[in-house]
């Protein structure tokens, strides 16, 4: 078991460069170190100018997504020992504009997420005095998988459609819309449909399936999208044949 | 309110075409594309084929198969051109060629099978 | 510089990389995807082939025999063998995808995905047997 690994870390300093470059560093590689530990070692001891995002270091905040050897991964969940002796290439997440080094701008996703109304939408909220909304375990199972999304955007990095057309609303946004559409406490499916049924909504997806492959939380956004395509198409047929509502 | 858009309908045609072509075409390709030309099985007599085509149920299934398969191709090919060759700016031309081709093939199928009755 | 920073998409120093036209050669799964999409070309080819077959059958015995002979030519045969392989790939990938979209509930319970997939394959088997029987019976 080699005790060191070579990390090739992408650097991009917008004031000085127009193209990214790579710095090579040897970092220790104990068997329980993840890529994030390697990056922290570089920043603490070798080069403090390296910039990257991270927070919980346990796969729940979704901050540390980067491209590791060409694959979108959470750096807190990727063990360096699996790639020893390296070199292990770390680049910023694909399909997003790079602000600096390993940091990408996620504003596009944030706007799209807001546009699908990721919250329970009801016509009338029950007052607290009437108690909670009751939900059986079966009703929870309907949407539970889609609620696991941590907004890490690995799916956007993996999706070739999003790479080719940044207007595409993207896997996570649709999966999260489905999380609420399928929640029996929610009454906002019709409102979400406006956004989702655009050309850049679900109809941009051609079911490549990469999003599901890279998702660290097994959300299966591809399945959510295909399911919603059927729902959306049937709703369109209904709206066409019965425009005054059914 | 859903905006009036052809995309959901085209997707449903694509899906239906995918199912129908997946169910019926492999056996047909095997017979008419591989087994008969290679001599593994004897091809049916022309009279038998003619009687089959004259059967209204067979004709309807064939028309359904041809129409849906062509629209399946049109939709999938159109999207592949967008993603593969990145020529989305030609989207009107591509859409016309793809769905237009499907319409022409469908018309040919209806015409031929009407003649066969 | 405005006093309240307004974050907009226009930020010229951000590095925006263009996706290469050959993105689909980058990963095996991307390539498999493009092959799956490409199978539709063989669907269209075989539909054209079927239309030609129907046309020749209607024209008469000589035309039908000429068609059969033409279908045995190496170039046509090769194309059809390749089509057969691609059509099988289309069937398998489509039946893999269908249960993801077709979420059926009986009452409150959801029909398991595997069952939907298996019923597709069963229907395929039945349809193929019917087709072969219809064509081959004397």
User: Low-confidence stretches of chain B at least 5 residues in length (pLDDT < 50)?
Assistant: none
Cα-atom radius of gyration of chain B:
17 Å
How much helix, percentage-wise, in residues of chain C? 55-70%
CATH architecture of chain B: Up-down Bundle
Strand content of chain C: under 5%
Main sheet: strands, sense, barrel of chain B: none
Rounded mean pLDDT of chain B is 90
Q: Give the biggest beta sheet of chain C.
A: 2 strands, antiparallel
Q: Overall 3D geometry of chain C?
A: flat
Anisotropy-based shape of chain B: elongated
- Give the total of beta strands of chain B: 0
Q: Give a count of the beta strands of chain C, DSSP E runs of length 2 or more.
A: 2
- At the first level of CATH, the class of the domain at 23-101 in chain C is Mainly Alpha
Elements of chain C, N to C (H/E): HHHEEH
The number of helices of chain B is 4
Mean pLDDT across every amino acid position of chain C: 89
The H/E string of chain B reads HHHH
Helix content of chain B: over 70%
Kindly name the structural category of chain B.
mainly alpha
Structure description:
The complex is a heterotrimer of chains A (about 250), B (about 120) and C (about 140). Chain A is α+β, with helices and mostly antiparallel strands. Chain A has 9 helices and 7 strands, in the order E-E-H-E-E-E-E-E-H-H-H-H-H-H-H-H. Chain A has 2 domains: about 100 residues, Ubiquitin-like (UB roll), CATH 3.10.20.30; about 140 residues, Fumarate Reductase Iron-sulfur Protein, Chain B, domain 2, CATH 1.10.1060. Helices cover about 35% and strands about 15% of the residues of chain A. The model of chain A has no long low-confidence stretch (mean pLDDT about 90). In chain B, helix 1 packs across helix 3. Chain B starts with 6 loop residues before the first helix and ends with a helix. The radius of gyration of chain B is 17 Å and the shape is elongated. Helices cover about 80% and strands about 0% of the residues of chain B. Chain B has a single domain, classed as 3 helical TM bundles of succinate and fumarate reductases, CATH 1.20.1300.10. The chains are: A alpha+beta (about 250), B mainly alpha (about 120), C mainly alpha (about 140). Chains B and C meet through helix 1, helix 2, helix 3 and helix 4 of B and helix 1, helix 2, helix 3 and helix 4 of C.
